[in-house]
Amino acid sequence: MKTSPYRPDQSNLAYSVGVTLDRFIKLKQSDFPFASGELSQLLRDIALAAKIVNRETNRAGLSNIGGAFGQTNVQGEEQQKLDVIANIRFMRALSKGGEVCAIVSEEEDEVIDLQNNSGKYVVAIDPLDGSSNIDVNISIGTIFSIYRRKTPVGSPVTTADIMQPGNQQVAAGYVLYGSSTMLVYTTGFGTNGFTYESSLGEFFLSHPNMQAPENGAMYSINEGLEYEWPAGVQSYVKSCKERKFQSRYIGSLVADFHRNLLKGGIYLYPATLKNPSGKLRLLYEANALAFIIEQAGGKASDGSRRIMDIQPESLHQRTPLLIGSVELVEDAEEMIRNAESEITGINH
Ligand SMILES: O=P(O)(O)OC[C@H]1O[C@](O)(COP(=O)(O)O)[C@@H](O)[C@@H]1O
Ligand SMILES: [Mg+2]
Ligand SMILES: [Mg+2]
After folding, report:
1. Inter-residue contact 195 to 204 (CB < 8 Å)
2. Please, what are the domains in the chain?
3. Under 8 Å CB-to-CB from 184, ≥6 apart: which residues?
4. Residues in domain Fructose-1-6-bisphosphatase class 1 C-terminal (predicted)?
5. pTM confidence score
6. 79 in contact with ligand 1, CB cutoff 6 A
7. Residues annotated as binding site for substrate?
């Protein structure tokens, strides 16, 4: 019996391009034998909030959306109006859904305890990534990490629920608000990308089972801080130039990460004099992207340690970040190690 060209291969239906996010989430639920649908619903809630924030970012040029909000956040950074709008939108979606018991947000000083003891999940979120690019119409994003709480459902939320290392994530993702809007996420069974079709209000699978090229010839780093970098990073970037690598830096972590995920490359934000522990935040920037890149065959470290094995100690703690193609990250780690042993005279 001839199979109809219109009936995609049932065994791999989830991965056929054009599947909606909703359908993909449903089909992939079978990856979790004891799934009860709460994580699926949480992913849908995040996708809904992303659609609303997407609409707001498209209007960022209009006066009432663009520009500074006139307050600073706990990191001492001036908040942009869109930082605050995105934070409110995601907070609402996460608290309304009912699956979440606590939220950690870049824009909130403390943990938001939703007093929802039936909530199984903890979410750490960077509602708007790349804030310095909002008003100049360059790609920006949202980054999120999802953990299952450690304490029993029904009991009050504790530090143990919040301060979990990245290797405890059950899901992580980002939204890229760029020339097209994409949602890329993992639940530990590979990394998949969905493109938003705004006229239909749907995310469609466009990048099934994403694989980061093992190698590449592209590096992303803020060269303006060159004189503040550790010696190992200076020698690594010098070697990239000697090997005629392309330098690409957008200044929005999500956008730089996404390009390197697709094309092969490495993004580095090392320790600097201004930020001796690096600039990027472990809980709601580095951990999520580390989970995604590892599920796509890439690597993420702080120069020596696997990002996802770092035990968090504070909510907004920062970390140096090297992330991207596995061979490039290992290359950089080796040069950093060698430079350090030259300085200390101790061989690692
Ligand atoms: O301007 P710099 O020092 O290069 O830093 C740029 C980095 O800072 C960030 O903007 C920090 O993220 P937020 O915009 O969410 O605060 C990253 O997106 C970006 O990669
Ligand atoms: Mg950010
Ligand atoms: Mg941000």
Report:
1. yes
2. 21-207 (3.30.540.10), 218-347 (3.40.190.80)
3. 173, 174, 175, 176, 191, 192, 193, 194, 207, 210, 258, 261, 292
4. 213-336
5. 0.95
6. no
7. 129-132, 222, 249, 267-269, 279
> Which protein residue's CA is at the shortest distance from atom 6 of ligand 1?
251
Ligand closest to CA 253: 1
In short, whether 57's Cβ falls inside 6 Å of ligand 1 is no
**Rounded Cα distance, 163 and 242, in Å:** 41
222 lines ligand 1 (CB under 6 A): yes
Maximum alpha-carbon separation in the chain: 72
What is the 3-state secondary structure of 198-237? Answer: CCCCEEEEEECCCCCCCCCCEEECCHHHHHHCCHHHHHHH
Atom of ligand 1 nearest to the CA of 252: 18
Tokens 């899901």 belong to 171
Token output for 1:
């019996």
Q: pLDDT (tens digit, 9 = 90+) per residue, 185-234?
A: 999 999 999 999 999 999 999 999 999 999 999 999 999 999 999 999 99
Contact 122, 101 (CB under 8 A): yes
Q: Is 129 helix (H, G, I), strand (E, B) or coil?
A: strand
Interface predicted TM-score (ipTM): 0.98
